[in-house]
């Protein structure tokens, strides 16, 4: 394969990788992902609190779930501020 062909192959691989990275980034910032994280976090904490006999486990599961979701929503903003000061 000539050097031009090798270069074209490398560019195609880079473009494929960029598409995967863009897709992963879109998923990481999507509301669908955040919704499922909310549901799974609430269900796992509620089930655990229920298993260990905590009173009102599902109500008590809401507090850490909301705190977790708030942290995931505010971290991108904090990251932006941090990036600008760096």
Describe the structure.
The protein is mainly alpha-helical and 86 residues long. The chain has a domain at 36-86. It is built from three helices and no strands. α2 (31-51) crosses α3 (57-85). The radius of gyration is 21 Å and the shape is elongated. The relative contact order is 0.08. The model has no long low-confidence stretch (mean pLDDT 91).
Return the structural class. mainly alpha
Number of helices: 3
Low-confidence stretches: none
Helical coverage, percent range: over 70%
**What portion of the residues fall into strands of 2 or more residues?**
under 5%
**Would you report the number of β strands?**
0
Q: Summarize model confidence as the mean pLDDT.
A: 91
Summarize the biggest pleated sheet.
none
Shape descriptor = elongated
Radius of gyration: 21 Å
List the helices and strands in order.
HHH
Q: Any key phrases for this structure?
A:
single chain; 86 residues; 3 helices; elongated
Quick rundown:
The chain is built from three helices and no strands. With 86 residues, the chain is mainly alpha-helical. The chain has a domain at 36-86.
